[in-house]
User: Fold this.
Amino acid sequence: MTSVPLRPPNAFIRQLPKAELHLHLEGAVEPATLLELRQRHGDRATLAEVEALYRYTDFQSFLMAFKAVSEHLRGPDDYELITYRLMQRLKEETVLHAEVYVAVGVCLYRKQDFAAIFEGLERGRACGARDFGVSLLWIFDATRHFGVEEAQKVFELAVRYQDRHVIGVGIGGDEMKAPPELFRSVFGYAADNGLRLTAHAGETGPPESIWGALNLRAERIGHGFTASQDADLIEELAQRQIPVELCITSNLRTGVCKAVAEHPAKNYFDQGVMITLNTDDPALFGTTLSREYQLAQETFGFTDEHLRELARNSFEASFLPAEKKLELLSLFDAAAAR
Ligand SMILES: [Zn+2]
Assistant:
């Protein structure tokens, strides 16, 4: 891994109220939790065997690692537990609100009973909200390289569960195999039904992939790493204040960014792009949201004031209903004023 040794996140960062907008449920399952699930399933795996699943060398093998972890998630109880554990971690990180991707495309591909799984997800969310006071909304994620018809099925499920904390849809997976243009009609369908739209774009794909996502009316861009290659695109993102969900450690670990100093996070910020910091797949990338803030500060010299602005952005860029957003922003402002 290309990374600088980091000090543990300082108290300011840990206590800064944050929201997280780019976070995959399956990529947040810690090895110890996965081991517990496997033992529940009667599997005699060891922690070392479980940890081996979390190793990869590049973006393609990372996708395989994500799949390997997901394959051990079975029934609703598993999804309930991983949601609850995630919310426990979010509380420890002073994350007040998270918008969490569920790889519904993978569940359908594996022919899981999604209706039952969704009940597990919602039980975990409700218990987590009660015990940790964390707000969580779901984003149903289609795996783009499974194709448009599969994405449509995912988005139909999002519409079905829309009144149960499903706020939007996204596309993830292999950008190079399935460009955004393919998804125009299904994104239109989701938007027409009142769902919010986000898309992974410019992670492994070129700036055109980000333009494509904007043409799909994506309201936020997941990663946007390659936007730095296109000055017009940066200007467009800045002018329209399209939030970009940056995931610095993720980009380093998958090898799309060769060295942390080359990451465009600070350039985007200086050019007026509305950036947010995110973990993407914290367990697979060995990171936490506080660690991402610490990394940004240590690498790029973001001041505490800058970090406060990024944290505020994370609430502003959320898909929360206006009233709840205002409530969290006033909590944020009160905490920041102390
Ligand atoms: Zn992602």
Observations:
- The domain at 11-323 is CATH 3.20.20.140 (TIM Barrel).
- The chain has a mean pLDDT of 95.
- The first helix runs from residue 11 to 15.
